[in-house]
Structure prediction request, 472 residues.
Amino acid sequence: MAEVEVIRADNVETIADIPVVIVGGGGTGLVAALAAHDAGADVLVIERDKSPAGTTAMSTGLIPAAGSRIQRARGIDDSPERFAQDIIAKTKGRVDVAMVRRLAEQSAHTIDWLTETHGIALSLVEGFTYPGHSVLRMHGMPGRSGGELMGALADACERAGISILTEATVDRLYVNGDDRVIAISATRPDGSSDIIGCGALILACCGFAGDQAMVTELIPELEHATFHGHPGNKGHAIRWGQQLGAAMADLSAYQGHAGLAAGYGIPILWPLIVEGGIQVNKAGHRFANEASGYSEQAVKVLEQPGHVAWSIYDETRHQVMLQFEDYQQAISAGCLVTADSVQELADKCGIGAEGLAESIADTWRLVDNGQTDRFGRSFTGKAKLAPPFYAVRVTGALFHTQGGLEVDADARILRADRTPFPNLYAGGGAARGISGPAADGYIAGNGLLTATTLGRLAGTHAAGHHIAGAGC
Ligand SMILES: Cc1cc2nc3c(=O)[nH]c(=O)nc-3n(C[C@H](O)[C@H](O)[C@H](O)COP(=O)(O)OP(=O)(O)OC[C@H]3O[C@@H](n4cnc5c(N)ncnc54)[C@H](O)[C@@H]3O)c2cc1C
Prediction:
């Protein structure tokens, strides 16, 4: 593949000229394509893999929104301001507040449009709230899987007649003296490449989690983390942004996860913790407030002996988890350990029985006395852990990076002086997220919120830009 680079040129010979070109066929790319199409533009998505999938297809596919029709039908009282306050609180205010408000305010439009215009079968996730969310606002596919979400988006693109060019990696951007992108080149696995002209370009190629050198440089705390994201996300948007002089921020931010089944690579999702489960180390001791968030807990798991921990729960939480496809896979793969007593569970897992018994008894006391433990966690209102017990050996993982290109309210990429590039957009993992500068600012859903809503805004604005005659 050619170098990822920006080439300055006022003219370039192209094989085709397309009004809106999108780099990357994950969630951001396909949502942006649908929005551009709906706004009347011809659009081309270019994806490096054999089929569009990305991190989005690996995900649980849960998209947060405030005030959607689905929420209202279930009697959920939510508002963009309440959603924005939850996000701001999770980052302790270390976030672009205007962008948080913009995304919170637009989030319900995205869900309503995806369901009603494009037939994406989203429903409200009920039964538990993720850490930091004050109401039920996660919307997911029936099997709660990102694969289903990508399948439905790809079907919608097909119905709309949107072209997706696969097995083509965009490597060069051709940019003229006005900072307008006039074309891109896409290289195929056999080394051949084509230059395609564009009226507007949307970078939907996520972050840099798939580039180990960039992760080591920008997020050194993840030295021992298992990478469980999409390997094709090599930081191209950031590398083009650096060459273009774009504004970038929060490059140390990421979505971690403290529940990747060790040796199996299957995420064991957080409801079992939120609903009263705990994590212990090899000695059977708890080591942090697990309920504060799965992202920041990843590094705390990595700090334990062997970089592993055990998620400990019971039949009640097991029942809550059965709705998730990932969990069903974990059952089939044999990740779960079950036992009728604490001693048996400790023996089967090879962890300290005395420590584990103390840790569980401690949670029973906390349920009874309503106090907060030494880590700041409360178990008030949770059912006491009871036999049969369950355990999964887990490690800390990197899912995707959250820092990136700064964009305005229409998802236009900003220069360092904060003026927008004329026809260049970003969304999802390519754009600066709303998680602050570190892992603890990630509130569940921030990934697909920026993918879907910035994707929609980028597609709509890029199409309008072209139709208004500002394209090449
Ligand atoms: C296990 C897991 C569970 C998750 N669960 C959730 C969840 O429930 N809710 C949530 O909000 N977030 C979740 N996330 C995060 C979420 O998946 C991501 O934030 C989101 O998918 C990012 O979307 P994207 O379109 O930016 O990137 P992607 O979906 O990764 O798409 C980027 C695409 O660009 C392609 N690409 C890269 N470079 C090029 C190039 N130069 N040329 C052509 N193509 C290129 C890649 O191949 C890829 O297909 C989860 C993540 C993981 C790993």
Observations:
- The first strand starts at residue 5 and ends at 8.
